[in-house]
Amino acid sequence: MLYRTTVDVDAPAAAVWAIVRDVETWPSWTPTMSTVELQDSAFEPGATVRVSQPGRKPDVYTVLAVDDRRFLWAARKTGFRQWADHRVEGLGRDRCRVELAFGIDGTLGPVVGPLSRRTVVRFVDTEAAALKARAEG
Fold this sequence. Notes:
- It comes from Actinomycetospora endophytica.
- Pfam families: Polyketide_cyc2.
- This is SRPBCC family protein.
- InterPro entries: Polyketide_cyclase/dehydratase, START-like_dom_sf.
- This protein has helices at about 15-20, 110-135, and strands at about 1-10, 35-40, 50, 60-65, 70-75, 80-90, 95-105.
- With about 140 residues, it is of the alpha+beta class.
- The protein has one domain: Alpha-D-Glucose-1,6-Bisphosphate, Chain A, domain 4 (2-Layer Sandwich).
- Strands 1-7-6-5-4-3-2 form a seven-stranded antiparallel sheet.
- Helix 1 (about 15-20) packs across helix 2 (about 110-135).
- The longest helix has 28 residues, at about 110-135.
């Protein structure tokens, strides 16, 4: 299962990226996050992040990749892996495009993915809209 959405934001890419990368502040601007706790000293590949979301058990994500406009993290579960990709692309001096993607793969992915799809779509779309509001507000 893969769900991907994009949103254009009327704000500089660097400013939006600063919001996206500061994962521990997400609960202050998106209702899809209860707590986000970096478990390591730096947000870099290999770091772990404990994520609690409303109505769900906490997950521990491992940061797989980070650069100046993108990060990817994943959480392993029994029989499947869930992952999220976050990208910010500049569209000019004061405008950018944000792409958020969430996937579920692995042996049980074909079962878990369809069962989770409605929640995934709702959460990812909410996060995109909340990020846009935060960055433009």
